[in-house]
Structure formats: structure tokens, C-alpha cells
Amino acid sequence: MQYDTVILGAGAAGMMCAAHAGGSVLVVDHAKAPGEKIRISGGGRCNFTNMHCTPDAFICANPHFAKSALARYTQWDFIELVDAHGIAWHEKTLGQLFCDTSAKEIVAMLRGLMQKAGVDLRLHSTLTDIAARDAGYSMTLHTPDGTTPITTRNFVVASGGKSIPKMGATGRAYEIAAQMGIPVTDTRAGLVPFTFTDARFAPISGTATPARVTAQGPSFDEALLFTHRGLSGPAVLQASSYWTEGAPITVNLLPDSDLLAKLRSQRQTYGRRNLTTELSHHLPARLVDHLSGIMDLGGNLADWSDAKLGTLIDRLSHWVMTPSGTEGYRTAEVTLGGIDTDALSSKTLETKTRPGLYFIGEAVDVTGWLGGYNFQWAWSSAMACAADIAQKQ
Length: 393
Description:
single chain, alpha+beta, elongated
């Protein structure tokens, strides 16, 4: 069978590209249904983009690479598409956009666009024997109905990264890249909880508090969650993408809080009150109990001088610890690293050495922050690829 374009992966990027590439398109995925990561994202409501999406919110060895695709298909373009299909949505904190009803609406929209474009979608299927030819690529399609040799002018790899293997994620994109001589940067889990081998936070598991968390990059102000295994919550997930093994992280339990002034004021009126009692008005009581075990929080407020209170505030604002590791790809929302962007055109996502071979979405070394940024990269990179393929028809 001959196709103009074969796309490996029926996720966000693969379906978006298929719907807009034009010509005859085959989409192949080993899953039982398309868009499974879309379906489970955002608690089942799909955080499909972010109002504040800019290139600064993406991690890449080349910080300029994502600019072209993001500029030519923006969050506003995807919002317009969602609106045109009557999908109701709402904005949460920090510009995050979610479906009002269900993430399945985004999947249905993409499936509808593919159907309208006449895309051939093959699920429970795989591709083997992928090889470059003079005028494109050949491969073998394996479906529940049998085996078929395939040729195509364009081959798009949109099979994602290694994150959430229980959803079927594999490193297939990197294997294909290696086979085709396309370099791949080191990969690791991103947007992932930290772990500590001593289970130090197990006694306060489930406790959450606003915090500012910093690894080796920007600081993130969101919720921090203590777990049996370590630390989680949005602030931790964000910082984890900048963390490297063995490095310390800094937790500020008092972001934008003038606790020193408050404690000094309370000391005038409630000097006989225990310091821990007063701290429990500003931090979760279970957290204060935990901190009492690692910091000297004894005595009444009256016993604490300005200098001593200042030292305490500094410790609460600069709580430094070194994670043992992360929970890895099992719970990671994204894969950091991937297809080396130096090997790709930033305008089209086509490989520079293999005409007609494209890598899009999470497989590429472009990773967004938590909050809809990675879906926007999927839409933008898919449209950059699709536009190039369409203009070649």
C-alpha cells in the first residue's frame, strides 16, 4: 500500500498532524484507542493549553528552537479550534485551560478532524522493517487482520517519550532515530515527584502547603505535597524538570509571607503562647510537628528574640534538602531530552539529513512547564510538520 504520509503515534501531536497534512495519511498506534494520554490528563478534563504560553516556558538544549513553531500556531489558534467545535472550557490558576466536561471532547474533536480528512487510523497495530528508500520510506504494517508492506513519501514519528509506560509509552522514537542516524540527547523523567530513601515525610504524608521550590532553574510558587515516598505537588513537579541527580533543592515555606513581622506582633500580645501554637496558624499543624523534630521550636513567643526569630524565618524560607531521586518514568508527566533539535528544522520539524522524515511532539528535546504547555507544543509542532507536508502535495 502507498501513502503520502505515515504517522507513528495516535496521540495529541500525531492526530493533529494527520488531520492537517493533506493527501493520503495512515496513522498507526499499538494502543486500543487514540489519545489515551489526552483522556487521562488534567484529571480527565485535559489541560489543553496555557494562556501564557511563550518559549521561555520550555526546556531545550537550544532555547530558540521552539520559537518558530510556537509563533506560527499559538494557544489562541488552538482555543479558536476548540471554540469552533463547541467545547466549553474554563481557566484555572496560572493561565491553565481545561475542558468544562471531559477530555474525551478533545479526543473526539481530533478524531472527527481526521475522519473528515480521510485519515486511515490503525489501532492495535505496529510498524516494523522501517527503511529509507530513494523516494521515501518502506515499512511493514502489522494489524489484527494481517501484515501489509507499506511505502510512503513522508514518515512522521509522533510516538512520544518514555513517560507513563502503563499507558503504552516506549522509547520507540529514539530507536527509529538511532536507526536513521539522527542524534538523541540524554533522556530523563520530568514533571515528576522527588523521593527520599529514608521516608522522612511518611508521618506527614498527605499534608500540603503553598511553597516556593527551586532546583537548578527558576523558582515555582504553587502547592507542595508531602508523600510517603517524598515530595510532590505542582511546585515540586515544576522544579524537578531542572533538577539533576545529587543536587540539593530549596523549599521556601513562606513565599510572600511576612511571618517575622506577624510573630513579633503576636509576641507583644501573646508572649506566653507556645511558638509551635502560633506557627500552626501559618503552616499546617502536622508540618509544624515535623519541623519541631529537625529544628528547635521550643519555648514561648516571649522567649524568642528578634535575632532568634529572624534565624528561624531564614530556615523556614531556605529549607535545603537533597532528594535521593525521582519516581521516574512511572509517574513522570513528560520526558526531558529526546531527538536532538540540531538535527531538525525548527520551521518544519523535518530532519536535515533525511528528507521526508519528521519528529514531533514529546519525542523531541522540547519540554514545557506543567499547565498545558506540553500539549501546546504537541499542537504547534504538529502543525509545523503538517504545513510542510501539505505544501509538498
